Amino acid sequence: MKEAISKDFNSYFCLCGEYSLSISSNLKNLPKRQHDDALVIDKTRHTFRIKFIKQPEPIILEREDGYEKRWMYNCRRCEVWLAYELPGIETAKNYLYLISKGLVSEPFATPPV
């Protein structure tokens, strides 16, 4: 069953079918992060509700231009990574990054190519 905050919100699901996000915008309208095509939610501009599990410790990723610390958020059911935050970066504190193609608009739907 599709759960939603209200009809003015868009609901999204993990690929396993778990309800994961309601947001006041369509994900297609969100900007993408250049480094990894993650969708960028500006916390100051969008109203949203997440149903993710925040990992207890951040991870460190090695990138071409150095290292990046991320707080990962996982699906409550299958534990796949769905989103992350960038701690310690002042300019990133108001953003939540959604993993590209990690969420779909219908339960058990195939992500867009």
TrEMBL record:
<dbReference type="GO" id="GO:0005737">
    <property type="term" value="C:cytoplasm"/>
</dbReference>
<dbReference type="InterPro" id="IPR057965">
    <property type="entry name" value="STEEP1_dom"/>
</dbReference>
<comment type="similarity">
    <text>Belongs to the STEEP1 family.</text>
</comment>
<dbReference type="GO" id="GO:0006888">
    <property type="term" value="P:endoplasmic reticulum to Golgi vesicle-mediated transport"/>
</dbReference>
<feature type="domain" description="STEEP1">
    <location>
        <begin position="6"/>
        <end position="106"/>
    </location>
</feature>
<protein>
    <recommendedName>
        <fullName>STEEP1 domain-containing protein</fullName>
    </recommendedName>
</protein>
<dbReference type="InterPro" id="IPR029704">
    <property type="entry name" value="STEEP-like"/>
</dbReference>
<dbReference type="Pfam" id="PF25809">
    <property type="entry name" value="STEEP1"/>
</dbReference>
<dbReference type="GO" id="GO:0090158">
    <property type="term" value="P:endoplasmic reticulum membrane organization"/>
</dbReference>
